[in-house]
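User: Fold this one for me? It's Glycosyl hydrolases family 28.
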Amino acid sequence: MDSHLRALPLDFGVERKQSMDHFLRLCFFFILATSLLVAAAFVGPAECIRRKRQLPGGGEGGKGGGVEQFKYSAAACRAHTASLADFGGVGDGATPNTAAFRAAVSHLSQFASDGGGMLFVPAGRWLTGPFNLTSSFTLFLHRDADIKEWPIIDPLPSYGRGRDGPGGRYSSLIGGSNLTDVIITGDNGTIDGQGAFWWSQFHSNKLKYTRGYLIELMHSNQIFISNLTLLNSPAWNIHPVYSSNIVVSGITILAPVHSPNTDGINPDSCSNVRIEDCYIVSGDDCVAIKSGWDEYGISYGMPSQHIVIRRLTCVSPTSAVIALGSEMSGGIRDVRAEDITALDSESGVRIKTAVGRGAYVKDVFVRRMNLNTMKWVFWMTGSYKSHPDDKYDPNAVPVVEGISYSEVVAYNVTMAARLEGIPSAPFTGICVSNVTVQLAKSMKTPWYCADVEGVSSGVTPAACASLADQGAAAAPCPFPTDASPMDGFQLQQCTYTKSSDA
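Assistant: Here's what I get for Glycosyl hydrolases family 28.
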């Protein structure tokens, strides 16, 4: 039996897997068929799904799994280890393990200054409520894991309220605040948020508080999340906020494509972020960069900056592959995205903002995108109709400038671009080069542009007049050549050895 961490908000015994299995089969066959049709132009969408490996001595049901030792890669190795089974955990899919998780983390926290601690979750189905991590700590999932109980916590100060409604929000499944050196990894272990209940409550307007996320780390430094599968989050999947020096690598995120707000990875008021080799099927943006909402984000004043996104594969029929905003009131700058593949998604890159947001989105560089079946390749809007309340400042006008797109190939597209700035503050410094868009149907105006300024070259069909054509011989749009802050990050080869630290 695989280990499985699962969130069950109401009923411990209900699996709710049939609809998800059906969805995954449909998704697989869709991706396979589409990939065969466009194989010459696409990187395979399963490029970053890791093959599961059986750990030595893998067992079942939370008996410790028989695992005595194995090797793994992580940002840091730990001197002290323990198994969840050592703290009374039972991975039978029915026994609550919240107390076991919390006791294990509390116990291992004593080793933060003595080489750190690692909690191993062996094979089994682990039912648990939310729990917080500690510093100098690794959570390692053998294969999978499970949840109940969602306590109420305060809204984020840069948002002023919950996103689903005024007031507080439910705690995230795996959380932590003011931490340093935190690793969440595994052998492609699964964390299942059992989101169907939450989506139903959201659609029925029955929620009193904002839904929790699967992973949320706040005010933290040195975060490494890798080699996991995240399923059916109630809302966002991975949400680092007010944090820095973050790597998210080798993550698979799966949710029904019409599930509400199941964003994949959302760095929020974060600096020095590296997202790479991830595969996301989502009901919302695959990656969304944020930094606070209207007057609350302006007051908090913490930007998202120095962010790298590489080798991302995305399926999101109702949202963007990469979104910037709409909550961007602390500012967003220096974002670099490259080698992006998307299938059946609403837009390739979307910038969302509005009067009242203030701040800026600037110095955004995107290159080498391969897209198939899109509504828009590029989408910008300065009139996003969403505010936390009516107290926003109508004079807080955002600045959008220095946006570069190059080396983009897109097939079966409804419209090449919809670029709508703000009349009093046009979006400027837009550069589009070496872009080929194959429209699903011929249309007279494949580009729509209003209140934007910039240049283009080597674009088919030709861009709008406000992106002045510089000719095919013009230099391509810029992409930074200097190293990003997280480029020097390297993994260590570690060994887990079952110890008596518990």
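One thing worth pointing out: The mean pLDDT is 87.
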